[in-house]
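Forwarding the complex inputs:
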Amino acid sequence: MKAKREALVSLFTAMREKKVDEDIIDLLMLINSIRGVYTTSSCSGRIGIIEEPDLGAKPLSRWLIKEHRPITFEEAKESLKNAQRGFIFLKSQPPIFHIVAESIKIGKKLHELGLASGFKYTTFKAVKDRILVEINGTEYLTAPLGKDGRVLVDDVYLKFAVELGNSMLIRAKSRLPRLKENFEKLKEELGEDELFYEVKRKFLT
Amino acid sequence: MKAKREALVSLFTAMREKKVDEDIIDLLMLINSIRGVYTTSSCSGRIGIIEEPDLGAKPLSRWLIKEHRPITFEEAKESLKNAQRGFIFLKSQPPIFHIVAESIKIGKKLHELGLASGFKYTTFKAVKDRILVEINGTEYLTAPLGKDGRVLVDDVYLKFAVELGNSMLIRAKSRLPRLKENFEKLKEELGEDELFYEVKRKFLT
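Prediction (whole assembly, two chains):
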């Protein structure tokens, strides 16, 4: 799989540059060591405050704060001082994994594995000839806080919304151990991929 | 397709009971008249205020107001008087269509059709032997408003959040005409399904 080699090189490069979420490195290593599957962009779940100049204009949006762990009320409050233009949202997002499978059969296994691990928004994306499975949770919070630098909520509300976002994040991340167990079982079934260890050795030496 | 016949009977029964969102009836008729595909649960997009007793406890949640058109600030405000227990959210959700395809090949076509019509969260769900395509937009708003009957936002904020939710709903629904055009093209390609007209005739007479 040429595409897997390229994906592994990207992953190890990103790890070396500390660009991979630390709390899912073990899991990403496990998944990529399985024969017939590899990960592309993945996120361990996050909470933050973002400014979006226009609805749906993602490329222009700007994080005022973004963390892969719960944030404090003070951090949220402080970050809002930098708000300038566009809609301000508090967002909490569950872990998400994009996994390419080499066959429809393996894709189906991944799909069932995600659902069985409690990630209820797990789906297939079979665009062109690539089988992509997105393992995704349901804990999405998108709370508007204001617009164009003007915050429309008070401290009581901000505290409430941050606590809610944090609970959703913790809840979503709590499924990661089960996901890992299920990938360990899948590895026993599908076997190890020598390519993974080959690329890993090159990066570790 | 025995499953399609059952799905059509459910759909026409629901229509007779006025349980189908009126603004997508034409589209649902069109999709179901195509050979090799049929719809299951679908929604034309909605906005509302919901109470959720516990995070993720969907079965126990309760709508205080729910409409398939923009709502007014006054309607939102009035509905909040009935809040009692659990987290209160203002939710705006885009149109969503669940479509079963009789083959992977048709499933892929539906998937591409959804994406090409601007529904960026369109995905495959290939559970067991059923190919299910979910045509879904990205315009999701989940704004917490308070908890256990206590509203933590003021009128300025509520007005702002309702307007934002309404804009997202309008924006999401504005893609429906393009979706319809694309299904008309798909019908030319895949052909008419006589089964649809047979079931329809039974219900109209």
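The interface with chain A takes residues 55-56, 87, 104, 107-108, 111-112, 115, 123-127, 134, 138-144, 146-147, 152-154, 156-157, 160-161, 164, 167-168, 171 of chain B (CB under 8 Å).
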